[in-house]
Design a protein that fits this description.
about 140 residues, de novo design (two linked rop proteins)
């Protein structure tokens, strides 16, 4: 599944480059955040269950860093409408809550219910934001 995901991401990046639109990049980034929210949940659960898979912690760290970087890019986008900015602030608050749960795991205190609920909320919030960015892209065309 990771290989298919990587190949799909390459196709999306090619489409993004072909359009040459910053708005298309924002649609891609917000859509990718949906995937990352679910990857983070999966990896967090695997780590909390202490599955004997090498590199889980590093994968979780990478996924959270990618989410954080993209979130900052989205927050800073000049194409954001007031509604998109407000929705991004809600995502940011949810993300900060999730990050607090991640910090607990550093002390081997895991909160899987909190993380799965939070990442599920992030999924739906980012789904709505992706639709908003798509709508903004269509209006700009």
């Amino acid at each position: 599944s990771d290989q298919l995901l990587a190949q799909s991401e390459q196709v999306v990046l090619l489409i993004e480059r072909h359009t040459g639109s910053q708005s298309a990049r924002l649609v891609n980034r917000s859509g990718r955040q949906r995937m990352l929210s679910q990857r983070i949940a999966k990896l967090y659960l695997a780590v909390s269950w202490r599955l004997p898979v090498e590199g889980l912690e590093a994968q979780l760290q990478k996924a959270t860093e990618e989410f954080e970087t993209a979130q900052q890019e989205l927050l800073a986008a000049r194409q954001n409408t007031p509604q998109i900015s407000q929705a991004l602030q809600k995502v940011d608050a949810q993300w900060r809550f999730a990050r607090a749960g991640f910090r607990l795991s550093a002390d081997s205190q895991y909160v899987p219910t909190v993380i799965t609920t939070t990442t599920e909320t992030l999924l739906w919030q980012m789904n709505d934001l992706t639709s908003a960015y798509e709508q903004a892209l269509q209006q700009g065309s």
